[in-house]
Amino acid sequence: MTQQSPDHVAFSPRRVGAMVLRHWYLLSSSWPRVLDLIYWPAVQMLMWGFLQQYVSQNSGFFMKAAGTFIGAVMLWDILFRGQLGFSISFLEEMYARNLGNLMMSPLRPAEFVAALMIQSMIRLAIGMVPVSLLAIAFFGFNLWGLGLALAVFFLNLLLTSWAIGILVAGILLRHGLGAENMAWSFMFLFLPLTCVYYPVDVLPGWLQVFAWMLPPTYVFEGMRALIVEHVFRADLMIQSFGLNAVWFAGGVMGFLLFLRSARREGTLLQGGD
Length: 273
Prior knowledge:
Layout: H1 13-28, H2 31-56, H3 60-64, H4 68-95, H5 99-104, H6 109-139, H7 148-175, H8 181-185, H9 205-211, H10 215-228, H11 234-265
């Protein structure tokens, strides 16, 4: 029985690690990149935190619901920054015109995507950990105090962000940097419908149908139930996981279809506008 060459292993953690290490060196050698990961979440957290302080001092409801604004904006940043971290790492390869080299190497698409997912978590941690500590220092809001619920919220939001990130990566593969704005703006299409800052029943009835088709909607509803009513809605989280499985599978299928199209049309080596 012949021994299989390492280059032909179906999935190689070493190749994934090499890609993660490449992006880590790129990130750690550039302080503007690191600063950008912290700057925008911090600005948003401070802006909404001060707004919440003002409203809570002038409204009985918001006194009861203290933390809903700042909690919502921090969970939204997990969703948005998770997708952006994935997409930016992919764009770095396009900027360096390295995609063609990667696709001709032993690196498999599944390994490439796995490396981008790990890099997404690294970028997210760099941005959100300092901001969560600022929220405690400025407003006494402890995101970590949500305990196990935070882990479930985090995982659901991360799965959605990766599903969107994988789909956007496929679009970029097929259409090049001319579609770069998709990486920055795609997630904002979901902002009104995921009900980040208000409950689902605020929406018109026909829009609520679409809102409940989005996994993050269940997370933000669960966050409000936990902060306002002190109830962990496990039913909402299970439904979110189920929808995330569908969304993630759809994102992977879309990526593979765009990759096949890019190879057929020869756009992998171009990557321009």
